[in-house]
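Work Package 3 (structural annotation) set out to generate three-dimensional models for the target panel prioritized at the project kickoff. During this period the team completed the workflow that converts sequence records into discrete structure tokens, so that structures can be stored uniformly alongside our sequence database. As a representative example, we reproduce one entry of 928 residues exactly as it appears in the project archive.
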Amino acid sequence: MKQQGVHPEDAESTSGASSRPDTARAGGKDPEGAAAGEEEQVGEGSGTGPEAGDTAGRDSEEAYADEVEGDEPLLPARVHRPSDLVRVLVGVLGMVLLLAIAAFAHGTTSGLEQDINKGTGQAPDVFSKIAGLVSSIAILLVPVAFAIERLIKRDGLRIADGVLAAVLAHGVTLATDLWVARAAPESIRDALTQPSPGDVGSLTDPVHGYLAPVIAYMTAVGMSRRPRWRAVLWAVLVLYAFSMLVTGYTTPFSILLTLLIGWAVAYGTLYAVGSPNVRPTGRTLMAGLRHVGFRPVSAAREEVADAQETATDRGRRYFVTLEDGPPLDVTVVDREQQAQGFFYRAWRNLTLRGFATRSSLQSLRQALEQEALLAYAAIAAGANAPKLIATSELGPDAVMLVYEHTGGRTLDSLADDEITDDLLRDTWLQVKALQSRRIAHRRLVGDAILVDRSGKVIITDLRIGEIAANSLLLRMDISQLLVTLGLRVGAERAVASAVGVLGPDAVADCLPMLQPIALSRSTRATLRRLARERAEREREAVLEASRVSKQARSEEAATDAGTGSDKPDKKTVRAQARAEKRALDEALDDAREEDLLTLIRHEVLRIRPQAPVEPARLERVRPRTLISFIAGAIGAYFLLTQLTHIEFGPLVANAQWGWVAAAVLFSAASYFAAAMALLGFVPERVPFRRTVAAQVAGSFVKIVAPAAVGGVALNTRFLQRAGVRPGLAVASVGASQLFGLGCHILMLLAFGYLTGTEKTPSLSPSRTVIAGLLTVAVLVLVVTSVPFLRKFVVTRVRSLFAGVVPRMLDVLQRPQKLITGIGGMLLLTACFVMCLDASIRAFGSEGTSLSIASVAVVFLAGNALGSAAPTPGGVGAVEATLTVGLIAVGLPSEVAAPAVLLFRLLTLWLPVLPGWLAFNHLTRKGAL
């Protein structure tokens, strides 16, 4: 049943050239009257010959050309394959590992080179000369011969891709040679070069400037996919590498790096410009059906609305009519389709605990076997599923699965009044049948549930399912179907139908799985959309209540003015404010709606009050944790490389402990300044001592959360517990952060200018200011030109002006509060700058001290990066930035590194224990 079609490179020039758009079938109905969805005709045609090569395929196509009634729309000429991007990443990773081995395993690389040179040196001299001559000629002739062969077959686009890849590879080799010669560590230079035999005193090239382009060219044009050409290619490469090693013009690491550069650049070029599309057309499908014994008349491709997930999980579907017999449903899966969603599946496999999506690197043969096995297993379990009657390969790049035609409509296409209780019960019965044999569907969404004309439910899309599934996957199927049905009929009916078939215990057991991460991608998108709609309705209700309240107050003021009444006293104003606050709270409570997952939980708990409600932890590793680990590792590596050159014994012995004590005092004073900076933007009365304790508790919180997130959350929670309304608490913290950002930028520019006027090395006023302005300009251009970023910023700015700006106007009416907030921010920055300066003076001599302006610039830059870094407390990013900054402004590295360590020890690590004690104390007191 296998079909050996034409090679995909030749198939695109035959079937692709003849494909043309066509109109949809009238009415979109199948012969039985069931709606077939929105479809496009794919007429019967010849495709590739089932068991023939290129010539047989073209002859077969011409034989059936007169019977073609139509073809599916033209496929895109080029596609961006995720597999090409994966190869690029693998190539880059290989280069990084190679350079890392060369840098850190110098003894091993030297020994390896000596062994290889010793072995190759024993080769006969005549053989070496012949190998060098033949390989030098062949490495140029082979690409030219392949280019001529491709041009004869009218495949010039591949040659253009190869030439572009060769040019880019040549540029990369030149850049690599320049880097190795001028900036690379000595160990890497020794691993990639050696004394040139033909030129005394010079070194060989680190990367071969003509070999890498040849490799990139041959990879981009697809020589590696041709068995005979691939054999010739490898023979030439091995012969060339051998001759270069024997003659002493290269090293093994240079050869490997050259291969990786050419390979990575080739696939990077193919991913950027796109690879020729080798998807099988409708003609190829018709030929494949004839090969397995069917006599098709026409085929219509089913169009899907949700291409984001459906195209990945369902394959391309066709409705095929036969000369004799009932129609067929055919699913076609090709390599391009297999690659779709690769990164999403790989990320899910990495981050989710206890279960995973299907293999990220699943082959076509594996996909065919898995879907066929699940189709047979579902029917054997007694579930209503499409019956698989044939399978076949459509050449080397696609497979097809032929099912009996089921007809019917999907659950998504049914009207609400058509979804009856009997239909819900039948749906759960099919799932129960699957689960009785431990078959997990993995994607029970609306388009995977069909309802035929008689009302029978059919479960489709078993492609990503799993047999012998564990209990976790089975419970996830129940939770997914609960949400799918709940989106259509509501939580009450969905839960009642599930309990009626599965029983209350089985439904209650799925509650820990009822969380967004366990649901399908399309379901999560729908829930997010509904959440946005609910939030918009709540916001409109609050705005309407505020408008009514303001209108009533203005009418009351107009009435008082008309009657000549005096201006209302403070007690009346406060009473009006409290009444307005109550009105807003009542409007928010009335408009607040619970999400679907919460409603489902409530319904299940109403039936089984003792059901477990704590969500199961399904994430093996969170994105924030992974990013934090990577960033922390990079920062730790950089810091350790700086510390390896420092002798801490004499440094600590000669430290000036008076300056260390001063640094401790400045670090302690920063908590009082932080409390002032927060309270200055809170018009309500909040205890100062408790606010200082909250800032100390923040030292513990920022260790377990990014600095820009943990502090904001803790201060907001603290203000709410202190009696400030939630909305006003968020606005106060937001106002403090916004004002602090403005002060930070102004101080950075001011101190940068002062640093330049002092003629500090590496910094000047013009460069500092211009660099900052250019950076801001580039960021503004990027944000305004990218629609997603523009929408994100506009949304955030709109919410800012809706909450923070009015809060700042309230603060401006109280000059004492404003002075407290501004003074606290300036004092906070001054404390940190003085702490860093004292740390520098503690380890430096009198001649190594820096000006306060230079220290301030370095601190402000490091603090900005620390706030933006995803690591807790900015670990790694702050240390690296401060160390590099201090060295840049003229401080010796043997002073900069320990000074930064002392500064971070006093401001980050030592306050953790007091912060933990303060956090627990405030929690017990109900202040957090």
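DSSP finds 35 helices and eleven strands in the chain.
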